[in-house]
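Many introductory courses stop at the sequence. We go one step further.
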Amino acid sequence: MQLLGQSEGWKLFNEKACKSRGAEFETSEFETIGRPVVEKCKGLPLAIIVVAGLFSKLNTLEEWKNTANALSFSSTTTLDDEECSRILSLSYNHLTHNLKACFLYLGVFPEDHKIHANNLGRLWLAEGLVKAFENEEFDAVANRYMLELMDRNLIILSQLSPCGRKIKSFRMHDLLHAFCVREAQKENLLHVVLSENRSDFPQKGFRWVSIQSVNFDMSTIRSQSKSWKSFLYFLLEESSLEFNDFNLLRVLYSSTKSMKVMVLTDIVHLRLLILKQNIKLSRARGFLKPRCRKGIELSRSWNLQTLLCSKVVSYRSDDGGNYSEFPQLQYIRCYDGFIHGNPPSFVHKLFRIRVDDCTQEYIKNIPFLKKVGIVCEGRDDYNGCITNLASSEQLEGLHFGGTEFYIHSQFTNHIVLLKNLRTLSLFFVVFDSDGIDILSKLPRLEVLKLKYIGFRGAQWKIQEEVIFCQLIFLEIFCTPLEHWEASSHNFPKLEHLYIRFCYKLREIPIDFAEISTLKSIKLRECLHSAVESAKKILDEQRDYGNNDMVVIKKETLNVSESEESLSEEEPDQKWITDN
């Protein structure tokens, strides 16, 4: 690791510790305290930014003095492990009690693992580390905690959400990850299975177990299972496991399709279940014998909050009931399959249901629905489906489209009934050249994603009177669009434009240089001419004083590569242009 000189180290510290402070933090008194602190970090960038993150949270000169005095190191020119650990400990000890527990939970993930914020928030919720407040939902609390960790430079941002307000994913520096694991183990919270060596197992019961060893043997740690609250599996190698007598387990999480649960005796305290296999929910006063041969069946996991699977979530009842036995189940998602049966009335997020299931009665039964994913198969009544959704007053997010074929965009006339919609993702839909414009009538729409979209005439011409008044993020993915006409007037608040795999798009409208809010244009596998148009927009934005805007390009194509990509894609994606 390259070490920084004193001037570089001070510049980095000053940038991180004082970036959001007023002029008083630029005075010589604060510099007098800060420079010796930077010197104690001995040029190690991680140590400098972690200390800077800590000092950025201190508000007075006295607090700076007291914290600086806590750092006393040897006179050697480099940091040893103990001194580095002392710096990390100082920052960790300044966290609130709740934030400490949330930080330690990050140790369950493997080193250099990309951590997805949505999953982490639900893991924290399941463990009781975050909770909703009267005016703040749990995911907002979780995002606030992650932002706090990022401000303190304890995590490294990988990606923000499309709107730019939330963390989507992040990573940890390897030294911080090692510190996190070490502290969690010291508190008898975490055991990481990295080998089959039984001598590594702690004598006392631990709360979280993370499986990261290829030679993992469940029987070697089963004696400790009664204390487990979280079981997380991160291996690519296939493994078949049985879970019985895990009475206190709250989290059962697999990051891959490799873990197969053969037996899962109903766990009353289970709150989060993420598996890549079928799940069947059963309503019964007593235990039921499993009938779900290719998956697992639950009947008494009454505390379940989150359920994610790869194939099918279905429901079986011996007395014609519904999901009333799962009163806390708010998030259900199937990655490849569908949800069968009526969902619980408390559900907030529901992903991958069929259009035919989206009846008026079905929607009426879930009044708290906020986000939903709906897939059309065959010639379904998708207009009626959208009309039924209009009765869902809290609906903010919709993912809607076909599967292996395109559907016509006439349903967009009905989508405008969803007045509270903030996020809209459409896929495998055919639009006329101006068919998308009607979406501008959604008054709160902030995020619009257009994936596998067919444009009749291969062009999108937006009329001057069409205004996407609140749109912040626009993504165009894998379309045959060739010509795009638009002005800054059409997108007055656009911040992020993301164009991927648009092999024929010649250029981005140059008038986007007039959008004062524009922060980024990202292009991947697009024509060289489209990239050049983005650079022209960037140059003009610079002339207007917008020095923060960026253009990010990856794998730019030339014309021959574009034609080759299209010839490969057309048979599978069934591009529609002039028909």
